[in-house]
Design goal:
20 helices, 4 domains, about 500 residues, Nucleotidyltransferase, domain 5, single chain, six-stranded mixed β-sheet, alpha/beta, four-stranded antiparallel β-sheet
Amino acid sequence: MKGYRVYSQIKQLQEKGFSMTAIANRLGVNRRTVKRYWTMDAKDYESLSINREKLLDGHQDIILHWLSEYPTLSAAQVCDWLKEHYGATYAERTVSRYVKELRETHHLPKTEETRAYEAVQELPPGQQMQVDFGEKWMDTVEGGRVKVRFVAFVLSHSRYKYVAFQSRPFTAVDLTRVCRQCFSYIGGIPQELVFDQDGVVTVSENYGDVIHTYEFEKLRQDLKFRIYLCRAADPETKGKVESVVKFIKQNFLANRVYADDEILNTCALDWLDRTGNAKIHSTTKRVPAEMFLTERESLRPLPDVQLYATAQICRTVRKDNTILYDSNRYSVPIGTYDTQKEVQIEPTNGILRISTVFGEFICEHLLSTGRGMLIKNINHSRNTAERLDKLLESVSVKLGHGITDFLSYLRHDKARYARDQLKLIESLCDKYGIEHTLKAICACEELGLMSATHVKDYLKHARATPIVLPPARLPVSDRKYHVSTEKRPIEAYMKAGNTR
């Protein structure tokens, strides 16, 4: 039996003069359904609906008992309990409609267990900073996708923010490094940091005697701040930073294309200055950057600003054996990408020191004041000149040092193709002989045709005879190559013919 809505629509279209077929097509129902209701008035429909026995009526009493005893019970649980206790299998949609009807008929509304929230007093300046992790998939410039992770920080009083990104999961070492960068960015240390119970921060809550990871415990002891851990499944305790994570995803990361970690972090700092800390906050109705000017005075000073601004900064080595720092590219020795996927940098006194993650020195550069520059040490390039000089010396020796000026011209004036030119001269010597090649080179020099291709053309059109190497001959003195075959007398063949 169809619902009252279908019945009502059929009767309305019937009054407008539609045929049964037209109504069935218009409502998307079977024509027999339309025919069934065609002569049925409202009283007949109501009595039919009231007296109609429902599929779940046999379990009505127990379902009503469950709904009364457990106000939060869902229709899906009712369906499962019917299977568990009575072995009755019904479609979830059927059970859902039946439960809904029972709730309405017997006034048993479903109640939800909701948490009561209350506004909390604003904290004084410098007392608390909330920290949380986030992640988001981003499109890359190559057309692929990458999951970007980030750590967001926000001062609870002024809502002044900081964020750091990377394309790999955060470790305890990464978090301590980013915390130091954040403290350097805000110019001080708050009294308390609020975290989730994350494995990067804590090993165990230990019934209140919290055990932190080694790296984070060392940071806590060095900088003398307190840690407040949210209880499990209670993210609302740090609601301020939860809003910041959402703000970063929707305002900064949305529709942005990923190039690499360094560029993303540089853009994030610009975004913080432009929007993140410059936009009026919806709760305080003030600009975070303006409130931070007052809160900064309440932060504890860093033990050594320069130390924490420069320590433990890591960079990924790119395929072209460079690293990014402050929007510039700095070279590392060829082969570093294959052996060191990540390096540690330390910018101090105008010098960028690059070392392995274990502190072993790799190289250093003068820091550039520009942007988008490539700062390259010539010692980091492949030493192609040395190999080219060896090839030049080899060809010169083969030609008897007779055409030094010609070879030097190829080496310097055709530097880009010098190797190809010298290799061609070497192959001409092997093909036509040194004497003919020398003669061709001298002729080209007299005509001012200073190229190995001209030498090749001269030899070709001068009809110089290529050297044809004789086939390899077997050594005469070696007896194993001389095999003597047996010679039969003619009588043996005559005898074989007579026997046939």
